[in-house]
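Below is one such protein, fold included:
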Amino acid sequence: MTGVALAANQDGRLELVATTGEDEGESGDVFHAWQETPGGDWSGWRVLGQPSEVAFPGPAVAAHADGRLHVAVAGWDRQVREIEQTAPDNGWSEWGVVRPADLEFGRPALARNYDGRLEVFAVADQGGWAVWHAWQATPGGQWSGWRSFGPPGSGASGLLAVGANDDGRLELFSSEEPDKGSPVIFEGHMFHRYQHTPGGGWSDWETLGTGVADEVGFPVLGRNADRRLELFMGANGVVWHSWQRSPADSTSWSPWARLRHDTETFVDLAVGANADGRLVVVATNDRGRLWRREQNPGADGWQPWTPMPNVAPGMLQEPTLAANADGRLELFARTNPLGDLYQLVQEEPSGGWPSTGRRWRHP
């Protein structure tokens, strides 16, 4: 497996979508598995749609307003390809292309507008790494042509995050890619753009700062219990975060703060929300082991970093989190170099985690 994504069906059952390939740089099949009941046992792997040999690493999944899931991947020709459920919780269409373009797209991101229209975002190189987007003209309808947002700063890195504000406006985040030929010491910045009105036009790129003298990691977005967005990233082995000062306030973000550990160096991270609303950050260290850190219950601040159970062979990377219908968090992480998955499930909503997990063989 080269990339995974999690989403919830209309009936609350989680669905797991995975891209596969000979290695990280080659296209392969797309597979999926699903819970047979909400929070229950999982099906085996099934090829998602026909043809299946379409995907470079990393799927994106979002839900239509009617509950049908929609999947987007960067295809073998580097076009953004799509497939969707034909009915909520059941059945899939054939693969199609969002809209052909003379571009080579990277891993896409998907989000649903306030009025139900899906919008897709991806980085492409056309004389510089810029962020492009396309949107449905009507909910579930035809896609627009691709439009460029231009580069954030000196250029876009390969991965994006997008989420909805409390008032329904989408907000998009991209870390800056350094100019490799520049003699100036690079200070990485995180950038964002936001819709002025729900489903409407967009702001220009605005920096959220950081000033880390290195390449900043890809953004990961969470939502606090009071609906404020909170953004996380890794840089120099440290997890950083910044948060909205009030819900739906796109123009006022806190300064960046560290969620550091005195001895561990963190690489990949994921963010989820406990059933009680507290955010939890899961990160892998440079040895491929899992750690987590959670917000304090009923108070400001965060609990210390805690190691998580880890019996998987090899190194874990790229964790992903989603909430079950009963509020228990479900965690998947890829294993390197085996290409399998490792799964952990919270024992109870907002509670602890088991001492052992489950290994998923790759398809």
The first strand starts at residue 3 and ends at 8. The mean pLDDT is 91. Residues 291 and 307 are 4 Å apart (CA to CA).
